[in-house]
C-alpha cells in the first residue's frame, strides 16, 4: 500500500536525490553476486514501519513475521539441501520515512548480508529500498505494497529483485465496483478519495472505470485532514446509495464518524487501508456499521473452514498475541513462508537462487489463499470483502 502525505512527497524527492549522491543508483539487474549464509543460520532482514505515519501497518506485519519465524524454528528450521538451518530475523524500523528505508535496506543487504528482505509495508518506503537490494542482488518482498508500478521498472520490465505478497490496487478497485454493482445494487455512488497517495487515487480510478452505475460526485481529501463535513453534506443532498472512500484508517475513521453523525446511513466502501483496528477506535463502534472493504484475508471466511491453514493461523495468532489476527499480519506471515518455500525448492539460501525461487512460486498454500507469482512478481490470489456492524466483522463475501 502507498502512504504519501504532502511532507512525504517532499521527502521522497530529497530522499531519491540523496540516494543518487550515495551511489545507490537503480540497477536493471543485480550488481553483486548475491549473499551467502553461514552453516546453521539463514538471516532475513525486516525493513518495516514500526514508528511514524504507517506504524499501525508495520507493527501488525512484525507480529505476523515473528509468529511465522517462531513456528519455522520450532519445527527445526529451513531445509537447505538436506541441512536444517534456523531462521534469524534482523528487524529494523524505517520510521515510515523514505530516506531511512533506503539506509536500512543498505545495512541489511550490504553489511548484514541477509538472504532476503521482508518489507516495507508501504509502497513509498518499498520503492526507496529497491536500488540497494538490487545492487546487492537480494530479493525484497513487501507484504502490502499495492501500487501497480511497484514491481516494474520505468521501461515496463519487471524489477528483478522486487516481489509482493498482496494484490494490486487496480484489482481492489475493480472488485469493489463489482461488489457495489452486484451485491449492494447501488445505482448512485459518491467517490471520496485520498489525493495525497497513489493508493487512494489508484483505487478511485479503478473503481470509476469499472462501476456501472452513476458517479453523482467525486471529491478528494488529503492525508492529515480532520473536517470532512462540507463534502459529506454535499453527498447527503444527492441521494446517494453508497460512498466509495479509498484511503487509510486515520482519515477514514473520521469520515465514517462524521458521516454517521450527520445522518448518512448509506453503505461506506473502501480498500484494505481500512484493515486496522484503529479504524473503529477512531470512528466509534456504533458508527462502524454497514461498512465494507476489500481484503486478501478474512477471519470470517477462515472460520467457515476450521481445518484450513488460515484457521490454524488465526488460532496460533490469538494464542500468542491475545487478539484477533489483522490482515497485515496474515500477509507478512505468508511473506516469510514464501521465502522459506523459495529456499527449499531451490535447495539453496543464496540470495540470487532465492530470487529465482520466488519468481517460480506456484500454487503456494498461504493463509491469505492459494498464490502463484505472475511474470511481474505479483501474486495471483483471491479477494474478499468484509462487512462491519457495530465495529465487528459480521459478514464476508468472495468477489469473482
How would you describe this structure to a colleague?
Keywords: Signal. Pfam families: Peripla_BP_6. InterPro entries: BCAA_transport, Leu-bd, Peripla_BP_I. Belongs to the leucine-binding protein family. With 400 residues, the protein is an alpha/beta fold. A hairpin with a 2-residue loop joins strand 12 and strand 13. The N terminus is likely disordered.
SSE string, helix = H, strand = E?
HEHEEHEHEEHEHEHEHEHEHHHHEEEEE
How many helical stretches?
13
- Output the radius of gyration: 21 Å
How does the overall form come out from the CA principal axes? globular
Note the beta-strand portion. 15-25%
Instruction: Examine the secondary-structure arrangement and name the CATH architecture of the largest domain.
Output: 3-Layer(aba) Sandwich
Q: Segments where pLDDT lies below 50 for 5+ residues?
A: 2-28
CATH topology of the largest domain: Rossmann fold
Q: What's the pLDDT, averaged over the residues?
A: 90
**CATH class category of the largest domain:** Alpha Beta
| Cα end-to-end separation | 22 Å
- The CATH superfamily of the largest domain bears the name Response regulator
Domain Leucine-binding protein: 41-389
Family: Belongs to the leucine-binding protein family.
Organism: Lactobacillus kimbladii
Signal peptide: 1-22
